[in-house]
Amino acid sequence: MRRSKLMTLTLFVAVFAIMALAEGKAHAQASYAPPGDGLPNPYQAPQSFGQLPNGRELPFFTGIQVDAADHIWVFARNAGPTLDPVLEFDTSGKLLRSWGAGRFNNPHNLDVDKDGNIWLVDSGIKNGTGSQVFKYTPDGKLLMTLGKAGVYGNGPDEFNEPNAVKIGRNGDVFVSSGHKFPICEGSRIQKFSKDGKFIKEFGLQGSGPGGVTCPHQMAFDSNGRLYVAELGSNFRISIFDQDGKFINAWKQFGSVTGVYIDVHDVIYGTDSISTDDHNMNPRAPDHGYNPGVKRGIRIASVKDGKITAFIPDPNPPGPVHGRETVAVDHEGNIYQVPDVPSTKFDRGFKKYVKKTGGN
Questions:
Q1: Which has more pLDDT, 284 or 210?
Q2: Mean pLDDT of 280-302
Q3: Alpha helices in the chain (DSSP H)
Q4: What is the Cα–Cα distance from 50 to 98, expressed in whole angstroms?
Q5: How many CB atoms lie within 10 A of CB 70?
Q6: Cα(66)–Cα(72) distance, integer angstroms
Q7: To 10 degrees, the CA torsion angle through 187, 193, 197, 201?
Q8: How confident is the model at residue 191, as a pLDDT?
Q9: Which pTM was predicted?
């Protein structure tokens, strides 16, 4: 009897030690091991991009998209009340047009539909405006508005700090909410018809399969599947069909904040916040805590999600985000800008061009 009790105690101590060791490793290592950090970088060093008139400095932004003509559209967050936040460039960096001064509070994301219309997300609220999604013609004529002006809410016709918008082939509109960082209150995805009628919601706030937290950028593959990058919370890209049915979650892209899928079904996931520092963001200890994982762009095929290339983020890890979102033209050129307001970091608009000759 005594021997049995001793064996039981010994077994309990051993199990406890294993659990403690596992817990220690969980805090000392990333919750997953994204591949790609040692893979080749097929791109040249980033080059400056974007020419603005009169010496105007390019604002930082999280809205970036490429249209069918390979024009790059951006939605600038700190343009101020007198400068245009909507900017259109050609692939050489020439500014083609701009508009929208004084119309938005906190520009956050945009999409370009198959007809060339520009969809813009205004995440902030001020003086009874904002927290809405707008559809404009390319020259700035308002066509449609979704959401209640100046209201954060969880109703079918309300948004709770909207993050991103994505338009399906048939014109259906997908809007993600939940940028009330770090809680990400009201995280979800809402689906509307092309004429703005609410259809359904899915991806409600959560860390389990089918839940989302701080959905930050969205993309469609050629089969119409919706890929959702979750901002530094669940460390994953969640995949849904257009009815909101959960398909899969990929954690191999790091602490992913942005996702883009090009015409060849190549997926680009950008990790802008991974850090070894528990307190990188004092408002949210452990936000982005991902020891040993490098910031940068991980590249894969949507067929299997296997990482085949990695582009390191040129910014050093620090208390601000690196390159949050990403866009890619039809030639495979990548466009990014850091979402940082500090001149301490390289905040310029950058273009990544592929290496030639196998170098």
A1: 210
A2: 78
A3: 2-28
A4: 13
A5: 12
A6: 5
A7: -30
A8: 98
A9: 0.87
Residue of 240, 191, 192, 193 lying closest to 212 (CA atoms): 240
* Domain residue ranges of the chain, discontinuous segments joined by +: 1-30, 35-352
Which CATH number describes the domain made up of 35-352? 2.120.10.30
Section 261-290 average pLDDT = 78
* Residue 345 confidence (pLDDT): 46
Instruction: Give CA separation, 84 vs 53, 79, 140, 315, in Å.
Output: 12, 6, 11, 27
pLDDT score for 202: 97
- Mean pLDDT calculated for residue range 196-225: 94
- Rounded Cα distance between 205 and 40, Å, is 36
- What is the three-class DSSP state of 5? helix
Determine whether 94 is exposed, middle or buried from the number of CB atoms within 10 Å of its CB (0-12, 13-18, 19+).
exposed
Q: 251: exposed, middle or buried (C-beta count within 10 Å: 0-12, 13-18, 19+)?
A: middle
The CA-based angle 125-88-330, given to 5 degrees, is 115
User: pLDDT above 70 covers what percent of the chain?
Assistant: 76
Higher local confidence (pLDDT), 287 or 69: 69
* Nearest-angstrom CA–CA distance, 33 and 83: 43
